């Protein structure tokens, strides 16, 4: 039996569900994470590797983590960028959370107080520590 390797790193990617939501990623089977125009988020995209874990977060509407995806293709030039300055990755859905974890819950949980979602809240792509990842998975059960 083949062992599944755990992700090396963990991330949170925000998307407005009325623009590109979890259901859109499911329908596509693999999505290109493009259009990111923030330098810190770009550094995060460039740090991603195939197999890294991703929390799919609905921003503006719902404001909650709704699913788990994985990086399926590492950093490459953003196809929506004519300057060659920006970066994209591809992601595939892994599973929908049994219960979404809301921003309100995350803010109220002392174990997640240092999460980049809260400390760098304007970032559309942020890193998640392994302990935060595991804690959120427990909240979603």
Automatic annotation (TrEMBL):
Spell out the Gene3D superfamilies in the cross-references. ph1033 like domains
InterPro entries given for it?
5hmC_binding, EVE_domain, PUA-like_sf, THYN1-like_EVE
Q: Which residues form the EVE domain?
A: 9-139
Q: Name one Pfam family in it.
A: EVE
PANTHER family recorded for this chain?
A: THYMOCYTE NUCLEAR PROTEIN 1
What's the name of the protein?
EVE domain-containing protein
